[in-house]
Known about the structure:
The protein is of the alpha/beta class. It has helices spanning 18-27, 73-81, 103-114, 192-196, 208-218, 249-252, 259-274, 281-284, 292-299, 310-316, and strands at 6-13, 35-43, 60-66, 89-94, 97-99, 121-124, 128-133, 136-139, 147-152, 166-171, 177-178, 186-190, 222-225, 231-233, 301-302, 307-308.
Amino acid sequence: xxxxxxxxxxxxxxxxxxxxxxxxxxxxxxxxxxxxxxxxxxxxxxxxxxxxxxxxxxxxxxxxxxxxxxxxxxxxxxxxxxxxxxxxxxxxxxxxxxxxxxxxxxxxxxxxxxxxxxxxxxxxxxxxxxxxxxxxxxxxxxxxxxxxxxxxxxxxxxxxxxxxxxxxxxxxxxxxxxxxxxxxxxxxxxxxxxxxxxxxxxxxxxxxxxxxxxxxxxxxxxxxxxxxxxxxxxxxxxxxxxxxxxxxxxxxxxxxxxxxxxxxxxxxxxxxxxxxxxxxxxxxxxxxxxxxxxxxxxxxxxxxxxxxxxxxxxxxxxxxxxx
Length: 323
């Protein structure tokens, strides 16, 4: 049972599904009156949504930004976080998302159960997939009862560029699993997370999830994968190839700052985080509750030594049931 309000944070970039995501979220909520939206819509003026036409417009804070002013997903998500008012929970999703019926009750109940063991818990996972074909949404329900956990791709390397490739892996498991990674497209937790781990607006895209996890982990948060996630994501495939990426070459020509410049700043920011640059301050730096050496001990990823123990990461994650 939802015992408070939920702020649903959505940053969108030229996404034709934004409006549908919001409507589906409300339609499938057990308690739509407790849902609030923080939306940053970066798109064409001609694509700007008429929020006043929504039956729940009073529950929406909508900020429009022309795509020529967009600075990447982390910049937009930092603005979303700044729209928090008195909501009790936060849910961060992408703008191409659909929901199971009763998703709000499901996530709140799961979080409450996890909080019996830890008072700093984040539910996060790559959501199950859905496809959109011939005007119909098709959820991937074949493996709905399986869990999606994170695995490091074997081709990932660590050098001056610390970004790694994480991929979702199905496991047949009915109990929550402590994770070594976080998914920006599905984060559900208490409001305090925004106070403790505000999004770094100087990050671009690559490294978003790694840096967010490292900051959360070192601040004492447990990121947990749970079974039967009630949220689905439209992953881009050959069947779904519309190009709404911020780094689209034509879009990039409209901006005063290229995506490559933003990305270079972001990669530098990642290095500053790992190597303890004090200029990041308490807001954007690592916490004091755990260390990156502790992280290596549970994950096999050594950011200092630029090495990855693939066997440790991809085997140990299967053994860390949430107790």
